[in-house]
Design goal:
mainly alpha
């Protein structure tokens, strides 16, 4: 009898031990996946991306354009030389396609619509995805409604009329249809527009108008997005005095109510949404700098765009803490939300200048 009880006790302990080991293995796997899937994507070279999507190679450029006058040698053309072969608007559209592709194919894929761990637990990267998605939507809408039309009465581009609505599909649908499938259709429609830009014989000739009034209209949207992010980030701060340039009383006079303090559980969400928006807008501005190069030089606005790009680059500086710190005043810990709000507010100020410059005759 005692022997049977001893055997039963050993089996019971063995079962517990096996379950404990399996639980530990699952926890390690989940933790590893969460660290990998939760990483923010890095920046990419917009010219390299556009050239790759266009299928251009060094052989597509005449050798005499790259000849070394002194030694008579030829070298591989730079991205700038290759990009000169791209039609106007191709780099901008290719950047939008690359942003969407990054959302869908980064480490872990698109995570916002995940219904199982670890994806369903990764709220930081899902906030990042939403921030980038909003900027992608705005830029695609600007392309459809402004950049690809010469006037308000002109016909809209058929492929862009297909692409834009797909990016506005709900971001958290996991089936019937899945969000990824709809966004992929939007990317395919952008590629069709790009193909017609590059080769007019591929269908109805695609158009892209890099005019000051078009850029002014898009800048208006960017100003509102950056202003919203800056205000929400300021509301994250432990002290109301952290609102850049405004006290609670001044905020109340300006808006009719005191800005609501973001709860502790939402601080990281707003911060990473701003990071995602900054990442996407940074690349869009680099594409605008390329495709609107002539008008920016003519209006003497290139430096203003450079200021916006620099501030957004600063906002994407890697964080040293695994948590979004919420320090106050001149305390021991930093305040990540305040730092991000400062960079975005400065980018917003430059966007206001850009709007004014583009609006001048």
């Amino acid at each position: 009898m005692a022997a049977n009880e001893k055997i039963s006790d050993i089996k019971s302990k063995g079962t517990v031990w096996i379950l404990s080991v399996l639980t530990l293995i699952v926890a390690v796997v989940m933790f590893t996946l969460s660290q990998w899937w939760g990483r923010e994507p890095g920046q990419f070279n917009i010219l390299e991306s556009a050239i790759s999507q266009a299928g251009l190679t060094p052989a597509a450029i005449p050798e005499d354009e790259n000849a070394n006058a002194e030694h008579g040698e030829t070298t591989a053309p730079s991205y700038e030389v290759l990009a000169a072969e791209l039609p106007l608007g191709y780099t901008y559209t290719a950047t939008l396609a690359h942003i969407a592709d990054t959302l869908l194919n980064k480490s872990g894929g698109y995570i916002t619509n995940d219904v199982a761990p670890p994806g369903v637990l990764l709220d930081n990267i899902t906030s990042w995805e939403f921030g980038a998605l909003v900027m992608l939507r705005d830029a695609t809408t600007a392309l459809r409604n402004h950049f690809a039309r010469d006037q308000s009465q002109s016909e809209q581009d058929p492929d862009l009329a297909i692409a834009e609505p797909y990016f506005y599909y709900e971001p958290n649908s996991w089936a019937l249809p899945a969000t990824e499938a709809e966004y992929e259709k939007g990317v395919q429609a952008l590629h069709k527009y790009m193909a017609r830009l590059q080769d007019p014989s591929a269908g109805k000739k695609a158009q892209f108008y890099s005019r000051a009034d078009n850029l002014w209209q898009y800048t208006e949207v960017v100003i509102k997005r950056l202003g919203d992010l800056s205000t929400r980030l300021s509301s994250n701060a432990s002290s109301s005095n952290f609102a850049p340039g405004l006290t609670n009383l001044e905020l109340e006079e300006a808006s009719g109510k005191v800005a609501a303090k973001v709860t502790w559980f939402e601080i990281d969400n707003v911060f990473y949404e701003a990071r995602g928006a900054s990442w996407a807008l940074l690349h869009i501005l680099r594409a605008i700098k390329h495709d609107f190069h002539d008008i920016l030089l003519d209006k003497r606005a290139m430096r203003t765009v450079d200021v916006m790009i620099r501030e957004l680059e600063n906002s994407l500086t890697p964080t040293l803490s695994p948590m979004v710190l919420d320090g106050s005043g001149y305390g021991l810990f930093a305040n990540y939300s305040l730092s991000m709000a400062n960079y975005i507010a400065r980018a917003n100020a430059a966007a206001l200048d850009l709007r004014d410059i583009m609006n001048r005759g």
